[in-house]
Write a structure and sequence with these properties.
globular, alpha/beta, 3-stranded mixed beta sheet, single chain, Rossmann fold, N-(1-d-carboxylethyl)-l-norvaline Dehydrogenase, domain 2, NADP binding
Length: about 280
């Protein structure tokens, strides 16, 4: 698959927009669709072609970065995505339940379309630079065929097993990340109570056994919260709530308990949003 290959892109949200721009910069002929005219205009000005969902699904390879699986399910339900469309491979970047990914893969296979799970981690800045981590689930041959697209997006690509595996690892990553967020909020409250500057505490922790990606990128969520707030994104659809809810549901579907996931789902989203808004207002929470 060459970089001049026509590539469909469905979903230009916070992360999807950055991914689409990266693919355009990498030489792909991107056909993009999103409900937001402003976001479509941004990728058009960068060199993409704006199109309908039908136009996107006529491309041989389609990247899907919608908030969840419902948009793709709707396109299957209404007959837009069938054997008659041009799509042969769908790269699913959305964070979804492993069971949802398997269901989509089975439905697509009925029309001769392969699905690769490729949820990502790293954020919009990493997406623009091609430094995302990708959690891949699917057939090895199909993944290898799509590697030019995947390599443009991420320099760390993990083949984890069949469809379902990529989503399971992405949800495990989300649990781990949000646990670190919660722990650092609590830890920095303690250090602040004893007059330690937050940056000094974070530097010391990063050089010690408490080192985490979250600690080294403290403030990462500030701009993301601002973007969600400005776009009117629903509170329940934000990853610190949606992804943790999906982790809990996935655990329960496998007859596992998820006490930490349940605790974080109830607490960490409010902390992230309050902290981000306080920083953006120029004050310390």
């Amino acid at each position: 698959m060459s970089a001049s290959h026509q590539l469909g892109f469905l979903g230009l949200g916070n992360l999807g927009l950055a991914m689409a721009l990266r693919l355009i910069d990498s030489g792909f002929a991107v056909v993009a669709h999103d409900p937001s005219a402003d976001r479509v205009d941004r990728v058009e000005r960068a060199g993409a072609t704006a199109g309908s969902a039908h136009d996107v699904l006529d491309c041989p390879t389609v990247c899907v970065a919608t908030p969840d699986e419902r948009a793709l399910e709707a396109l299957l339900d209404d007959g837009t995505l069938t054997a008659g469309s041009g799509a042969r491979t769908v790269l699913l970047h959305s964070t979804v339940l492993p069971t949802a990914a398997r269901s989509l893969a089975a439905r697509l296979a009925e029309s001769g379309i392969a699905l690769i799970e490729a949820p990502v981690s790293g954020g919009p800045a990493a997406a623009r630079d091609g430094r995302l981590a990708l959690f891949l689930g699917g057939d090895d041959e199909t993944i290898a065929h799509a590697d030019t697209v995947l390599a443009a997006l991420g320099d760390r690509r993990f083949r984890l097993g069949p469809v379902g595996a990529g989503s399971a690892v992405k949800l495990a990553n989300q649990l781990t990340m949000f646990a670190a967020v919660d722990a650092l909020h609590e830890g920095l409250a303690l250090t602040g109570a004893f007059d330690v500057d937050p940056s000094a505490a974070l530097e010391a922790i990063a050089a010690s056994t408490g080192d985490t990606w979250v600690g080294r990128h403290w403030g990462f969520f500030d701009d993301i919260v601002a973007d969600y707030d400005s776009s009117g994104s629903s509170a329940d659809g934000r990853p610190w709530r949606k992804d943790l809810r999906e982790f809990i549901d996935a655990a329960h579907s496998a007859s596992l308990s998820a006490p930490l996931g349940e605790h974080l789902h109830a607490t960490v989203g409010d902390r992230i949003e309050a902290d981000a808004r306080a920083h953006l207002e120029g004050r310390t929470p």
